[in-house]
Amino acid sequence: MNPKFIEMKKFFFLLPLLFLLTACPVGLEYAPGKVATEQVDARLIGTWESESSECEIRKVTIKKKTANEFSVQVLERGEMYALETDDLTLYQTRIDNLTILYLKPSNEEKYYLYQLEIKSDSELTIADVSLLDGGTDAVSDTESLRKQISNSKDKEEFKNIPKFVFHKAK
Hints:
Number of domains: 1
Low-confidence stretches: 8-23
Largest sheet: 8 strands, antiparallel, barrel
């Protein structure tokens, strides 16, 4: 068989995986938790910056609205930022051992999900949440979304999703 043909087959096989690992999060109709019922970590309050040009959000200010709902103002967009607004509402939930942030833009009824790991009071990491056990087609409500995340979290592709470091602005 022609070696160039084999290389092309490998390329087209790996292309969807490459897209998965570099794509922006997809807005979902369902939240991964019961909206505004779980406490959001107060350590998120403040202005945060990422030095990565690949991150959707480069600089953001987070303020407390209530214990279970924070406001988010995007101050600087990254190259991949695709939303039409810079005003979002932030909620938090836990699924197994994962802390999940879900953001709702002020101008749409969708939720955007991120994994959160707080390293210290001045450093955190976020990463997209990929649904690797059926994708968005398998999501029909909050419970099925939680199941998709739970079933995806131990897969190697999920563990290798790029993480973005944020530092609290001084």
